[in-house]
Specification:
By secondary structure, the protein is α+β, with helices and mostly antiparallel strands. It is about 35% helix and about 20% strand. It has a 7-stranded mixed beta sheet. A 6-stranded antiparallel beta sheet has the order 9-8-7-4-11-12, with no helix packed on it. The radius of gyration is 27 Å and the shape is globular. Mean pLDDT is about 85; it is low at about 1-50 and about 55-65.
Length: about 725
């Protein structure tokens, strides 16, 4: 019998009482007319303007957007020739050198060139923390090109950054005289709503956020979060705050600030410490520097009077589920189990194993020292004093003890091994869920605990990887294509030289392994049916969802805009609407957050993560340092009141900004200043994942449009070597 001890956080509606989130259907509002459909006489009366209410959401959530309007795209990425050359140089030089290059054109004879140079300088100045200078440059650009709506819009957001909210609202209003395009109008409406909120007028902000919620599919999650914030600060609406926050998470499970606020609100219900514990354990697991979460976690853990690990979101299994799998000859590969966010395997204090067949314990010098029958539990426990590992029976009797590595080997290759009840000194360091594996389990003693390394075969991993990474994929061709990518990447990893005793971890950027117990027949069939195709000669990878422009410049739409990098073009692209023929478009029109998203982070959280790394102080500026060819942020310079910190890679950048919850490195930041310091950070972004290789949602869309799995592979890997081993055909 399966036993689950994990909870899906966004469905945990008992967190703050008996409220339930309103069901979401496709909206019906015509955005181009900037109006909301009238409510029929038999529906509840509309609330007073600006009052946050559940009825507002329930009444208008069944309206529908004009598809032609929300997918229209009028943005132009063209640049003067000389500035296009500067933009390309900026990809290979630092931001300071980039600034100097643009500076040479701020007073160019041609007004269009000078205006564009000033726009670029404004964007770069804001990244450098020079807000007054950014305002000066955007003002100059507006004088040179007064009819350019992008300049007017950027002026509004720069004023928001400077804390000049009334002037920002006026700038957004002025922009609406220049264009009625949805891309511009929706951004102006968002800026206006935020300006009202930070200006201290929550009622006016609530009115605008309600409109955004019912009219803009790209901002549903963020608008619901902001309505939750407004409701939480108003006594008459406070009980409705969880409704909006749960709505926010139902549209975007990555909305970390919504989860933070839900955790705080959950404490109002004094009778349910378990719910508060689970919220704070999730927050602390994402961000171990979160001192508030740790204090709350300790407090509620004591109230529960039980082992906190019993209440974490871990999968628990009583016995192996799969039990018997036909082996497929393929390349051997070693995978470290229970790795943390940085792909380092966690040293365990204790773990149990249960085989579905006869299991032997093999010492590297003594040979076979122990044999265990099917479905009998053995416990592996680290002895901190002797630095050894004890193998115990279910009653706790030591049957074998060693300081050397040893192997748990299944006599029949078709049998499986359940690894369960893993315990570490820090239960939040990694996901310690039970998992069923194929192949041998190498047990390695260290000074701090025991490491587990699963030696298996490539083909045995593919269905399990599909089960975790392709849960929303239903098209057979898309599953096969992803299986081809996994196979190629695993084979490449298995052949890559390494100084570690393993090739990959179960928490690798590309390989998320949670056990073969999660596999379903369609995944196994996809792995089997894709074995004929061999992929090589390209950068391998995959990511969850894609906009128009990916890291490797594969454009996921037939309508391809002429996008070229520049600092301002990144801002413009992030603002743009995904086209209607985007292959990754969601079936549910309210679930666009995987493609376009907006988050609002508190600077104090970012400062906490930075102060763990260096003597940093207060956050003053955030400057993209290393970029991909299309402008994705790979590393970033953080300037503080006491020092600076440069992130090593995209993964660390996203962790510092959002505890690793941000969807991708393709983003634009609006820093919100209070004096010299940044108080909060608004992030607009695109895509989910690295942007390298196969886009999973895009593959699903291509399959729906009629592409077979070979066609999908060719689309996402146009420069790859694709060999059909059955026919001998080479592409």
């Amino acid at each position: 019998m399966r036993k689950y001890l994990f909870f899906y956080i966004i469905l945990c509606t008992t967190a703050v009482g008996a409220w339930s989130a309103p069901e979401t259907a496709a909206p019906e509002t015509v955005v181009g007319q900037a109006t909301i459909a009238e409510v029929s006489s038999d529906e509840p009366a509309a609330p007073q303007a600006g009052v946050v209410s559940k009825n507002t959401v329930v009444t208008h959530i069944d309206t529908q957007l004009s598809q032609n309007i929300i997918h229209s795209n009028v943005l132009d990425y063209a640049q003067p020739k000389e500035l296009a050359e500067v933009a390309q140089k900026c990809l290979s030089v630092g931001p300071d050198e980039c600034f100097v290059l643009y500076k040479a054109y701020e007073n160019a004879p041609l007004a269009t060139t000078a205006a564009r140079a000033n726009v670029e300088l404004s964007v770069l100045s804001l990244q450098r923390g020079q807000v007054k200078q950014a305002l000066s440059y955007i003002e100059r650009a507006g004088q040179l090109q007064p009819d350019d709506p992008f300049i007017a819009l950027l002026k509004g957001w720069t004023l928001i950054s400077a804390g000049k909210y009334k002037k920002a609202r006026q700038a957004f209003a002025d922009m609406l005289y220049l264009t009625a395009d949805f891309e511009y109008a929706s951004s102006a409406k968002l800026g206006t709503a935020l300006a009202y909120y930070w200006e201290g007028n929550p009622k006016a902000a609530a009115k605008d956020f309600q409109y955004i919620y019912t009219s803009n599919p790209y901002l549903i999650s963020f608008a619901a979060y902001m309505m939750g914030k407004i409701a939480a600060g108003d006594k008459s609406s406070r009980k409705l705050a969880p409704v909006f926050l749960e709505q926010s998470l139902s549209h975007d499970v990555h909305n970390y600030p919504a989860l933070q606020l839900l955790a705080k609100l959950s404490e109002q219900n004094k009778t349910k410490p378990l719910v508060s514990f689970q919220y704070y354990s999730t927050l602390f697991g994402l961000d171990p520097t979160n001192k508030t979460a740790f204090k709350k976690l300790t407090r509620y853990g004591e109230k529960l009077h039980k082992d906190p690990a019993d209440y974490l979101f871990y999968l628990r299994l009583d016995q192996p589920i799969v039990q018997d799998v036909k082996p497929v000859a393929s390349a051997p590969i070693k995978m470290a189990l229970y790795a943390d966010r940085w792909q380092n395997p966690v040293a365990l204090e204790k773990v149990s194993v249960m085989p579905s067949g006869i299991l032997t314990v093999q010492d590297e010098k003594l040979g076979t020292v122990l044999q265990s029958p099917s479905f009998v539990t053995r416990v592996l426990e680290f002895n901190a004093e002797s630095k050894s590992i004890d193998v115990k029976d279910a009653r706790g009797h030591v049957e074998f003890s060693t300081r050397r590595p040893f192997v748990l080997h299944l006599e029949k290759a078709s049998k499986t091994l359940l690894v369960k009840d893993a315990a570490a000194q820090d239960p939040f360091a990694a996901n310690l869920s039970d998992k069923e594996i194929k192949g041998d389990l190498h047990v390695v003693p260290t000074d701090n605990g025991l490491l587990l390394i699963n030696q298996t075969q490539v083909e045995d991993l593919i269905p399990a990887l599909l089960a975790t990474q392709a849960q929303g994929v239903h098209e057979e061709a898309a599953l096969r294509a992803l299986a081809v990518v996994f196979r190629a990447a695993l084979n490449e990893a298995a052949q890559r030289p390494t100084d570690k005793p393993y090739h990959i971890t179960d928490n690798d950027i590309y390989f998320k392994f949670k056990g073969i117990n999660l596999t379903v027949p369609s995944m196994t069939q996809a792995a089997q049916d894709s074995r004929d195709l061999k992929l090589s000669g390209t950068d391998l990878g995959y990511y969850a969802s894609c906009g128009v422009v990916s890291y490797d410049r594969v454009r996921n739409t037939a309508a391809r805009p002429d996008y070229h990098y520049s600092p301002a073009n990144v801002v413009k692209y992030i603002l743009s609407n995904p086209p209607s023929d985007l292959y990754a478009a969601p079936a549910d029109p309210t679930q666009w957050s995987a493609i376009r998203w907006v988050y609002l982070y508190e600077a104090k959280d970012i400062e906490s993560r930075l102060n763990e790394r260096t003597k940093f102080g207060r956050l003053r500026s955030m400057q993209p340092l290393q970029l991909s060819p299309n402008g994705r942020v790979l590393s970033m310079r953080f300037e503080g009141s006491k020092g600076e910190y440069i992130s090593d890679n995209e993964q660390e950048t996203l962790y510092i900004l959002s505890a690793g919850t941000m969807r991708s490195g393709f983003f634009h930041i609006v820093p919100l200043y209070k004096g010299k310091n940044i108080a909060r950070v608004l992030v607009h972004g695109y895509d989910s994942g690295t942007g390298v290789g196969l886009c999973v949602a895009g593959a699903e869309g291509l399959a729906r449009s009629g592409s077979d799995y070979q066609g999908i592979i060719k689309y996402y890997f146009p420069n790859a070597r694709i060999l059909n081993t059955r026919t001998g055909a080479l592409h």
